[in-house]
Each structure stands twice: as C-alpha cells, then as structure tokens.
Design goal:
Elements lengths: L4 E6 L8 H15 L3 E6 L5 H13 L5 H12 L8 H17 L4 H25 L4 E4 L18 H14 L5 E5 L2 E3 L5 E3 L5 H11 L4 E6 L20 E3 H9 L7 H10 L3 E5 L8 E4 L9 E14 L9 H11 L7 E3 L5 E7 L3 H11 L1 H5 L5 E14 L7 H9 L6 E4 L5 E7 H15 L4 E8 L3 H21 L1 E9 L4 E3 L8 H7 L7 H10 L5 E5 L10 H6 L2 E5 L3 H4 L2 H13 L4 E2 L10 H10 L4 E7 L2 H12 L4 H10 L8 H4 L2 H13 L10 E2 L12 H6 L5 H9 L5 E10 L8 E10 L11 E8 L7 E6 L3 H18 L1
Parallel strand pairs: 1-2, 1-7, 2-4, 3-4, 7-9, 8-10, 17-18, 17-20, 20-21, 21-22, 24-26
Antiparallel strand pairs: 5-6, 9-10, 11-13, 11-14, 12-13, 14-16, 15-16, 18-19, 23-25, 23-27, 25-26, 27-28
The structure holds aspartic acid (ASP) and magnesium ion.
Magnesium ion binds next to helix 21.
Length: 809
C-alpha cells in the first residue's frame, strides 16, 4: 500500500458549472503540485440525480420529458463540449423511452439510470484535468465495490469489495489521478446498484478504509459543520473539531452533510474526516476524528416535515401496555416514531412521526383504541402537521433552563419536550412558524453569543433623536461588555417609517429625510419583525401622541415589550390603564416608563421596590416640573419680574412652545397621577385638584397673544410673593396624600410657600425633587433630587429602561 494517501470527495454542488467546477479543478491541481497522493471520489454534478429521477417519473406517467432531457444534456456537456457522452446518453434515452412505453420502472432500472450521473461526472473531471496537463482517468466504482441485490439502498459485501479495491489500486498507474464514481456499485451479476441517496460520501469512506487512507476530505458547498444552520442563525459558528461520536449524533439528527453510515468505516480505522468548502478552499473547515476534548460540543439541528400526535385521557393513568400498543400499531403501518414524551401525570402521550404518515397513523390508532375511546378512557387523539423537531446535541436537561425560559419569554410554545436516554440531547417539538426564532433564541443562550435585541423607535423628535444617537454611540461598548446587540430595526416618524433588518446606521437622519413618505403603519413594522423572525422585540414610544397608545396592546400581543416616555397611556381612564396591564400580563410583556416622572431620576423604580417590599408609602410630595422649578426658584430669589423669569425659561427651551402647557399644571398633575397609580390607587385625572397658574383672562388667548401679554402676570405673582411669611419661598408642587391603603388618594397640584431652609426651599435651577414618606422612615422622607427634565437626560432614562428589559431577557 502506498503511504499517506488521501481520499478527496466532491459533492454535486461543488461540481456545478461555473465557479464550482473551476475551483474543483484548481483544488486538485494544487494537490498534485504539492505531490499529494490522492484519489478523487465524485458525486453526480449539480442536481443531476434529481433531474434523472424526475425524468424517470415523467416517463413513467406517460408525460413528455423532452425539455428536461435537453436541459440535462446541455448542462452536463457545458464545461467541455468535445466530451464523448454517446454511451451514457444513448443508454438513458433508450431507457426513458422504454419506461414511457411500459409506464413503469423497477428500482433496478432506477439505479442504472441514476448511476449515469456519477459516470458523466467522472468522465468530465478526468477530461478537464487532462486538458490541464494532469494525467487522470475516470474509474467506474462498479468494477470493485460489490453489494447485495437491494437496489436503491444496497448493502456492501465487505471482504470482496476490499480485495477488489486493493487489487484495483495496486494495479493502477501511480502517475495517474483516479477519478472514481461515488454512490454506484454492482451486485455479483454485475448489475448496477447504488448505496442510497447521498451515498458518494459512504463510497469515499469505504475506499478510504480499504486502502488505509490517511484522511478523507469532503469538499462541500459550506464552510464546515455549524453550531446551527446558518440559513436560520446568522451568528452560527463553525465547529472546528468533533469526535466521531459527536459527529454520528449530529448525523442522526439531521445534519445533512453527515451520514452515520459514512462515519462507521472511518471509526474502524481511525481515519480523520475533514469537511471543507469548494467555494472557500482556504477555510479551515471541520475536522472529525477520535480526539475527545472536555468541551461539550453543542449544536442545534432541525428536522422538518414532521407531524405530531397526542393521545389524551384519564384512562391512560397508570395503565400498562399503552405505549407498546402505540408502537406496534405504528410498526404494523411501517411508520417510524422518533420522539416520544409522556406527561408526568401520564394523562397524555405525545410522539412524532413523518408528516406524510399522519392520516394513516390517526386512523390506525382510532381502530386500535376503539374500546378505550368508547369507554372515554381516551378522550382525544389529536394530530398536528407543520411542526419541526429542534434537537440540541450535547445539551443536558439540567442546564437547559435558561434556554427554556428564553423560549417562553419569546412566546414560543413547546409542544413536546424530550431528552434522550444518555441525557445528552434534548428534542423540542415546535410549530413551524416559530422554528426560526426558536433556534436563534436557543443558539444565543447556549453559545453565549450576543443576544439580539430588536428595537422599534416611535418618534424621532428631541427625545427620540437623542435616544437613537445614544444607542448608536454605545452599541459597540454594550456588545463587548454585555454581549448584547442593540439592533434598531425601525424608526417611525409621523409621515414615514424607516425599516432596516441589519439595523439603522449613524446616517439615519439623512436616510430618513431622503426616504419617501411611505404610508407605512405599525402593522408593517409587526410584519417586518415576523418576516425576519426577530426575537426580543422592544417598542419605544417617544411620541407625545395621544392616539399612539392604541397600538400598545397590539404591540404586546405581537411580542413587543414596551417602553415609553409618553405619559398618555398611564394617565388615561383607569379602566384603559387596567386593560393595558392585563394584556401585558397575559402576553408576558414588560412595560417600563421611568421617564414619565422626573426624567432620568430613578423614581418609579424606587417607588416600585418600596411598594413591592410591603413598605407603606404614606405621602409623595415634590416639585415635579423642571420648567416650573426654574421659574419659582428664580422668581423667589431675584428682584426680576415674573414675566422676565418666564421669558428666561422660554429662551432656555425649558418650557413647551406655549408655556401655558406648563403653567396650567396638567403636566404636574399627570405625573402625580402616574405615581398614585404605581401605589395601586385608582384615581382618575379629573379627580386631581389643580391650581392653574394662568389667570382666567389669559387662558383662552392664542399662543402668540399670550406670549405678548405675559407682563400681565406680574401683579398676580408679585402679590403672592409679597404675601409670604419671612424667609419663605414659592414652590409649585404635586402632593399625594390621604389614606393610601384605600382605593383612592387625595391628589393636589398647588403653589405653596415653604421655609427657605426646608428641602423644598433649597431647590436650585430647574431641578426636580421628590419626597417619599413611608411608615418606617416616619418624618424623614426618602428624597430623590436632580435634573428632572431635558431631552438628553430623558433619553438616557429611556435607555436605562431599555437595558433593564434587556437584562430580563
Ligand atoms: N448523486 C447521488 C445523490 O444525489 C449521490 C451523492 O450525491 O452523494 O444522492
Ligand atoms: Mg424618572
């Protein structure tokens, strides 16, 4: 035997016309130049096998197949038009005609037809190599790989095949590269048999085993074996090394490039298998060998076209032999059962079969359990199509809880859960519509790969815009530090919505301005998220809209957690307030709005913690409005007139464009109501006693007229200021008092006079202050004080809510 020989196998997609076949030739050339000893094993090119099967079926049904046949021939000769395929093409043509005539074919005929695909491929590659100055010869594996008569899935006759293969190779010219057909074999009568679909990998392993090859290289069209199908999971990673055991597990759970059968010959002789990519020949790929590492290899695979049957009934409780009867019923109908799981109460038994067998299975079960159905021991036999099995390989049930929780949080129902006997694999049966999302959720849990948080931001004004920029600026740091990927996939303004599945960029403003008005609605955003199977959805309302809140419940129902700097939802009627809470609870969704009161100050959070811990809050009092804080702090201290101070506040952008929106007290009242409701009080907005700071004669003027007449406020406030006791200052406060253990509290918004030295009296600038009085702290309130307004701080507060929700995921 010659030393260090490698088997190089190329799959059908690798051998496709164009880039594929070109790369194959150059890969072989490189190896020859490096003086590597190689045997090439090929499968049919492109989807030749499928095409041949299709033509056979058309012929059998008496249909015309001329178009397909012509296309097949053209495809096969394309890389070298001078090639002589006369023999193969004539055989196929004659056979198809015959099949059309008798309208039938046997598995034997089918094997002969399919075998031509590999024969054509070997001829083609040998011809191209020879054209490139590399001496090579196409080799028909039927001459040495011998099988029984089981056409379509023949069993290899080991001893004979081995002797034949060794003899063939020893007689073969050492200077020539053998290009061997995979997949095809023959029986003792020299009739063509095949090793089953995808069998050329098995051929390569067998030849490797018989000739003691040092390695098998399987050139595919992917970079190697991934932690999950990269079509589903964009974060999927290549597994660099797997041992044979792990590889067989993967193979049996649907990794399409591996077959358990292929691995067995390699295990016997300890021949490593490398999975490589024809289209990316420099990638390291996946190496499968006998090395056992302590790292638990985990990967996720999916089996589709699965059906699910569930048998339920109190009569199943503790009854022996039910499982056996189910299995034997399935067995009699040649249906294989793959996952079975029994509820701990034993009141239901669920299992998985192939989707196409559902009808037969249900009918058979109804007959088998006729008696039990009649006595109502079995109440139902339900079937469900369009489900998939997700298998997590190398996952122990004990550490599965984080994935499990993440699935629940993402509203993914698990129909059945099962762990295998060795406890190393977990199977989940999941509705097809959730599969993609489920794999992503599990994948990021078990591989610790960054969690994707998909965010839709409504409102791009001062707060909205600041938030978007803050997120984009911190994105990389958060990704590094917390492995959380904050992906803003939607920005919605009043006229248009910007959608981008990769996440919007720093240039979002320009992109938004350039985008046409697109009349897109919230439904488009929901559909977009569904289309791309986005997990961990968050909607942020930074609008001041009174109608946008109608979207909160639909958003929650469609999997979005909610964050809002908009106060409307929390100050609407108590009934609507309650309804939103109920929907959130039902849908398992969060709703955070820390910035509703005191902007970024951690007020709502603190109140919540106190309240939840059973601490009785007896009163909340403070200056809740940044603009009114500024106005009265300065007015109390300085000699300036009220209108001068008001003008300063306007100029600094502290007030709303029409300052009466601040002066009327409604904003403070809203904040007060929000705090009250945090304490489970059921007050309504119209129950709040509000001292409106605008005198009646200025209440109904236009904004412009009002702004030109602000000096008329001066006598009113000058008098109030002068009427105070000495060393007292004016403060405009919200005050929640009464018996807060009851359903309703007393809510007042008012202008008061307080001692300069009191904590309210010492307030500066535009700061807010909140005094929280509780039973255990008595007269000493917990005081939270600081900048309680401004776009940047508010955006920061919203960002805080975002991270809070993210951490719960
Ligand atoms: N050409 C055969 C098939 O498509 C064998 C193979 O590709 O491995 O099944
Ligand atoms: Mg706050």
């Amino acid at each position: 035997m010659r030393e260090e020989m490698k088997i190089i196998k190329f799959g059908g997609k690798s051998l496709a016309n164009g880039q594929g076949i070109e790369n194959v030739i150059s890969i072989i050339k490189n190896k020859v130049n490096l003086k590597e000893k190689i045997i090439i094993v090929l499968s049919a090119r492109g989807n030749a096998t499928d095409c041949l099967e299709l033509i056979l079926d058309k012929a059998k049904n008496g249909e015309d197949y001329a178009v397909e046949w012509k296309a097949f021939k053209e495809y096969q000769i394309e890389p070298n038009k001078n090639i002589d395929y006369h023999k193969e093409f004539t055989l196929l043509e004659k056979t198809f005609e015959g099949v059309k005539l008798v309208e039938d074919y046997s598995l034997k005929v089918k094997d002969l037809v399919l075998a031509q695909g590999e024969l054509l491929a070997a001829k083609m590659i040998a011809s191209l190599l020879n054209q490139n100055g590399i001496k090579s010869n196409s080799i028909d594996s039927r001459d040495f790989l011998k099988t029984n008569d089981n056409f379509g899935n023949a069993q290899i006759i080991e001893k004979l095949s081995k002797t034949n293969t060794v003899n063939w190779y020893n007689a073969f010219d050492e200077e020539t590269i053998p290009i061997v057909t995979g997949f095809i074999t023959s029986n003792k009568n020299n009739q063509t048999t095949t090793l089953g679909r995808n069998g050329s990998n098995y051929s390569a392993s067998l030849i490797a085993k018989y000739l003691n090859a040092s390695e098998v290289q399987n050139y595919t069209h992917i970079d190697g074996i991934y932690t999950a199908n990269p079509d589903y999971v964009s974060d999927a990673k290549i597994i660099e090394q797997l041992n044979f055991n792990e590889a067989s597990e993967l193979a049996s759970f649907g990794a399409s490039i591996l077959h358990a059968k292929t691995i067995i010959p390699l295990v016997e002789k300890n021949i490593p298998l490398r999975i490589l990519n024809t289209y990316n020949p420099n990638a390291t790929g996946t190496l499968i060998n006998n090395k056992i590492t302590d790292k638990e290899v985990k990967s996720i695979s999916v089996q589709n076209e699965i059906g699910f049957i569930n048998i339920e009934g109190k009569g199943l409780l503790g009854k022996k032999g039910i499982d056996a009867r189910i299995f034997s019923t399935m067995n009699q109908n040649k249906i294989s059962v793959s996952v079975i799981s029994q509820g701990s109460s034993e009141r239901s038994i669920g299992f998985i079969i192939s989707e196409k067998d559902i009808k037969t299975a249900v009918n058979a079960l109804k007959i088998e359990f006729q008696a039990e159905i009649q006595t109502k021991d079995i109440s139902s036999i339900i079937s469900k199509k369009e489900v998939s099995v997700i298998t997590i390989i190398g996952q122990n049930i004990n550490n599965f809880s984080s994935s499990f929780n993440a699935l629940i949080k993402n509203n993914i129902d698990i129909l059945l859960i099962n762990n295998t006997l060795n406890g190393n694999n977990i199977g989940l049966v999941i509705d097809n519509k959730n599969v993609n999302k489920a794999i992503n959720v599990i994948h990021s849990q078990i591989f610790g790969i960054s969690k994707n948080i998909n965010i839709a931001i409504f409102g791009k004004g001062t707060v909205g815009g600041a938030l978007i920029n803050q997120i984009l600026n911190s994105k990389n740091k958060i990704l590094k530090r917390k492995e959380i990927n904050l992906n803003i996939f939607a920005i919605a303004g009043s006229k248009k919505i910007l959608l981008n599945k990769e996440g919007i960029s720093n240039k979002w403003k320009e992109e938004y301005d350039k985008a046409p008005n697109n009349n897109k609605s919230i439904t488009d955003i929901i559909e977009f998220a569904q289309k791309y199977h986005f997990e961990n959805l968050i909607a942020i309302d930074n609008t001041a809209s009174t109608t946008f809140i109608d979207n909160y419940i639909p958003l929650a129902e469609n999997g979005f957690d909610l964050i809002s700097s908009n106060k409307i939802a929390n100050t609407q009627s108590y009934l609507s307030y309650k309804k939103l809470r109920e929907s959130l609870k039902k849908n398992n969704k969060n709703y955070l709005y820390e910035t509703n009161v005191g902007a970024g100050l951690p007020l709502i959070d603190t109140i919540n913690i106190l309240h939840a811990s059973g601490e009785n809050i007896t009163r909340i009092k403070g200056v809740f409005s940044g603009s009114l804080s500024f106005i009265f702090n300065h007015f109390s201290e300085s000699e300036s007139s009220f209108s001068d101070i008001l003008q300063q506040a306007i100029d600094k952008g502290l007030t709303e464009p029409d300052p009466r929106e601040d002066l009327c007290g409604n904003d403070v009242a809203r904040k007060l109501l929000i705090l009250a409701r945090e304490l489970d009080l059921q007050n309504e907005f119209n129950e709040i006693k509000i001292h409106n700071l605008i005198p009646t004669f200025l209440q109904d003027e236009s904004a412009q007229d009002f702004l030109s007449r602000i000096e008329e406020l001066n006598p009113v406030y000058q008098k109030i200021k002068e009427d105070q006791k000495e060393k007292h200052v004016l403060r405009y406060i919200g005050d929640l008092s009464g018996d807060l253990q009851k359903n309703k509290g007393s809510l007042e918004v008012k202008l008061i006079s307080v001692p300069e030295k009191s904590s309210l009296g010492q307030l500066n600038n535009a700061d807010s202050i909140f005094e929280i009085y509780t039973e255990s702290y008595g007269d000493n309130p917990i005081v939270i004080q600081g900048a309680g307004a401004g776009a940047e701080v508010t955006a920061r507060g919203v960002f805080g809510d975002l991270l809070r929700i993210t951490e719960r995921k």
